[in-house]
Design a protein that fits this description.
Shape: globular
Distance between the termini: 107 Å
Helix content: 25-40%
Strand content: 15-25%
Radius of gyration: 36 Å
Low-confidence stretches: 425-434
Structural class: alpha+beta
Number of strands: 32
Number of helices: 24
Length: about 850
């Protein structure tokens, strides 16, 4: 068996499958694209799902990859076992309707056992298979695997909800009796152990799973697929002969750096393993545009960082240290993941900022912990609050508790945690699910040409009629893709509602199909106004993208976009709040590029040449061997299949209309182009409505009150800023006028105080009023009390929906009187012995009380 570095393992894997006709697929971003079922890319197949369910047809039906992945469902096991990780690399080979079971097993056998490749002794390998999958078992036997190394396991069937599914075969490496004296029963009975390491799983995706049916009744897929996953970290552990994954070259350099920084020698401690795993997760996730926050994937990263800090404290770190490990991760991994070099500086800044925040939070958490101790115990509820509010892992709480000689209600904590997990499970969508294959769409491969870059009207021929719509031999209609909406218009006078791409790239026109048959000659007319407005917005999006990078930093990555005819939206990652000044700077850059009248040039060239030009790949898109690059004066250069204006001056103008956080360090820019001044008033109408309401209110109260003039609209984000400030100003002015009028009214009431004094004065005198302002009651009772000079004065004021009562007393009876009134009037209130007040909404009881007084 060969010793191999992780880099050699990767290259051996990719080269082997490349020689077997597989296309090498680059690792996708850890942040899923257009897949709400996933929080993270968590397996090699995850970014390829659209090929397996037939949504898209891949360039090659044989694919291999090394996919970076994140899983946090068993984070508590990280560091405890030899092989659990939150970040890991999944090596895979995939067949989409090409080779199947026999070939997949033969590939696996050759790669694992051949001296040319991994050269693993056959007697060290054990394979499981689904009990009824006789073909898989016999294939292994024919290759020379002994019967006692083949184990039937009922759980060897991959399915998650409806969609592609099938049996699988798992491959285990036997590390020998020094790890466990027990034998293959550990695999058969699925017993946690350190002896048999599962290194590879090969899934035979051959059925369309249907939750309504028994598994034996599942229908065969029209295209059978192979989906495999092999953990790089586990291969490294086997081929480098280490006790755990953490002593391999994928982790040990980080551990040595932690040794150096902490002064503590590594001897298998869990803290070193947790830190090494978690810093890799943080570096890779942040490099791909994720941020730390209180929700979604941002919350996951925050928890991971705080867990690493907790374990850092256990080996002596009492100040931020994780950011000091970033360079080690980059040095260790950047040969394969080159983007880590570009993002290293910003990753360090983000991690340091979060560490500083947490070390500050720890102090608050410690105070809460000490304040929550009762009778030498910390309740499960308080322990959970420390976990949920202050970000304290339960291990950290237990550690503090032990230092102070107290016990923690772990059972109560776990119960509270389970309630939270249940809520999360209920809210979480099914992960890793795939759509069922549509055989008719999947099998339709007649070519169709898009000519809409050059023509908006064509005479075309119908080559296919589906239930949903029609396909033409050539079409001017752009299909919804790359963030750009589809064209609309007409075919033979009938409305084209939408246009979508089929698995083989043809455009399906959603239209009433009864009027069409295959072979019909048709006239296609694209809605020109909609197309031209969409083109302006799409080109402006490219300008916006580059302006954001120039202003906020090169770490900015596109997280999504929408290019329609009425507006554009553009989502980016950023690690801190975006300031108004930065937004204005971005807007001015785009406006300047429009004024410069730059030609928008489209290059069509091989993808390798496009990359040499420095063209940026659009977020989440897959490209063929020949690509289109949209070049705007060499300043903005992006891969893009969308439609664009000929010159930036065609955009006319550009205005950012809103910027908002949409969670997890992601911000959405919304903007308009063209004649922006004619559109601005509609966009800011809500703000204008609020402003005019305040103005009308002020004028109704004081028509002579002077107001600053309303800002004029200029067609810039500055309009939004100005109107927000003016709304704040006018709101404050409204309050000022109200207070001034209220003060005048109170003065008038006080001047007329004598009119409230009853003819009969008693030791406890009741005074009644109607609809007086609430703010006037206290000044009024003070004046009346001084005027009539009795033991106790009660002022009862009745308004439309409630009654208020105030009591002032020189004999300290105020609180007693209030209590009696509360009982009689079903009210609430209290105060001091010399002054108290209360109120009630039971006006019927107030009327009865008044009748009794009369």
């Amino acid at each position: 068996m060969k010793y191999m570095t992780s880099e050699q393992i990767r290259q051996t894997w990719l080269n082997f499958f490349k020689d077997k006709g597989h296309m090498i697929e680059p690792s996708a971003s850890l942040i899923p694209v257009d897949d709400p079922t996933l929080l993270w890319i968590n397996a090699g197949v995850a970014p390829l799902k659209k090929y397996f369910d037939g949504t898209e047809t891949p360039k090659s039906r044989r694919i291999t990859n090394i996919q970076k992945s994140i899983r946090t469902n068993d984070i508590d096991n990280v560091g405890k076992t030899a092989r659990h990780h939150t970040f890991f690399e999944m090596m895979g080979n995939f067949s989409i309707g090409d080779y199947f079971k026999k070939e997949a097993i033969e590939f696996g056998f050759e790669l694992l056992t051949s001296p040319k490749y991994f050269d693993i002794p056959l007697d060290k390998l054990y394979m499981t298979y689904y009990p009824t999958d006789v073909e898989a078992k016999n294939t292994w036997l024919k290759l020379g695997v002994k019967e006692d190394h083949l184990i039937p396991v009922e759980g060897n069937f991959w399915e998650i909800g409806a969609g592609p599914s099938g049996p699988d075969t798992e491959i285990f490496f036997d590390r020998g009796t020094s790890y466990d004296l027990r034998g293959p029963e550990l695999i058969r009975d699925d017993i946690e152990n350190e002896r048999f390491i599962e290194i590879w799983n090969i899934v035979f995706s051959q059925y369309n799973a249907d939750p309504k049916l028994k598994r034996s009744e599942y229908k065969e897929l029209p295209n059978k697929n192979i989906d495999t996953g092999a953990g790089l970290e586990r291969f490294a552990c086997v081929l480098q002969g280490t006790k755990t994954n953490f002593e391999t070259d994928l982790h040990y350099p980080v551990i040595l750096k932690v040794e150096s920084l902490s002064g503590v020698k590594y001897d298998g401690q869990m803290a070193f393993k947790v830190i090494s795993d978690h810093i890799k997760t943080l570096v890779f996730a942040i490099s791909d545009g994720a941020n730390l926050s209180n929700e979604g994937r941002g919350y996951v990263l925050r928890r991971i960082l705080r867990r690493a800090v907790k374990y850092g404290k256990s080996i002596g770190f009492d100040a931020p240290f994780l950011h000091l490990l970033v360079d080690t991760v980059v040095d260790m991994m950047s040969n394969f993941y080159t983007n880590l070099i570009e993002t290293a500086v910003i990753v360090k800044k983000i991690i340091l900022k979060e560490e500083e925040k947490f070390f500050s939070t720890i102090l608050d958490g410690e105070k809460h912990l000490l304040q929550s101790i009762k009778d030498g115990k910390l309740s499960g509820e308080d322990a959970f609050k420390l976990y949920d509010t202050y970000g304290f892992p339960i291990e950290l709480t237990i550690e503090y508790a032990e230092e102070h000689g107290i016990t923690v209600d772990i059972k109560g904590f776990n119960e509270a945690l389970e309630v939270q997990k249940s809520r999360s499970r209920d809210a979480r969508k099914v992960t890793h699910s795939m759509k069922g294959q549509d055989e008719a769409l999947l099998n339709f491969d007649v070519p169709s040409e898009f000519v809409g870059y050059d023509y908006l009207q064509t005479e075309s021929k119908v080559i296919k009629v589906f239930d949903q719509g029609i396909v033409l031999d050539k079409t001017p209609f752009y299909a919804n893709s790359g963030g750009q909406i589809s064209d609309t218009g007409s075919i033979n006078g009938l409305v084209v509602r939408d246009v979508i791409k089929l698995p083989h790239g043809q455009h399906l026109h959603l239209i009433e199909t009864d009027a069409f048959t295959e072979g019909d000659e048709v006239l296609c007319i694209v809605n020109q106004d909609k197309r031209h407005h969409t083109m302006k917005n799409h080109t402006a999006t490219h300008l916006l993208n580059q302006a954001l990078k120039d202003t906020l930093g090169s770490h900015v990555k596109q997280q999504g976009s929408y290019n329609g005819d009425l507006k554009l939206t553009f989502d980016i990652n950023h690690y801190e709040t975006i300031k108004d000044e930065e937004i204005l700077t971005v807007e001015k850059i785009v406006q300047q590029k429009i004024k410069e009248q730059i030609d928008v040039v489209t290059h069509v060239l091989p993808i390798d040449e496009a990359k040499k030009l420095g063209a940026a790949m659009q977020f989440g898109e897959k490209y063929g061997d020949i690509v289109r690059v949209v070049d705007i004066g060499s300043w903005s250069m992006e891969f893009c299949g969308g439609t664009h204006v000929k010159n930036t001056s065609d955009i006319k103008n550009f205005m950012i209309t809103s910027v908002e956080s949409i969670g997890s360090g992601t911000y959405r820019f919304e903007a308009i182009t063209g004649q922006v001044l004619s559109q601005v008033k509609k966009i800011v109408q809500n703000l204008l409505d609020m402003i005019h309401q305040h103005i009308e209110k002020i004028k109704s109260l004081d028509e002579n009150h002077n107001l600053n003039p309303l800002p004029e609209l200029t067609g810039s984000y500055q309009d939004i800023i100005n109107l927000r400030l003016y709304n704040q100003y006018i709101s404050n002015e409204s309050k000022v006028v109200e207070k001034q009028l209220e003060a005048k009214l109170i003065d008038q009431i006080i001047l007329q105080a004598d009119t409230f004094i009853p003819k009969t004065i008693e030791p406890t005198t009741y005074i009644y009023s109607d609809n007086l302002p609430q703010s006037s009651l206290k000044p009024l009772i003070d004046v009346l009390y001084d005027k009539i000079k009795v033991d106790t004065v009660v002022l009862l004021n009745i308004s439309e929906d409630k009654a208020s009562y105030l009591v002032k007393s020189s004999v300290n009876e105020a609180r007693n009187v209030i209590n009696e009134l509360n009982k009689v009037l079903d009210g609430r209130g209290g105060g001091k012995p010399d002054f108290a007040q209360g109120g009630t909404q039971a006006l019927d009881k107030v009327q009865m009380f008044l009748k009794g007084k009369n």
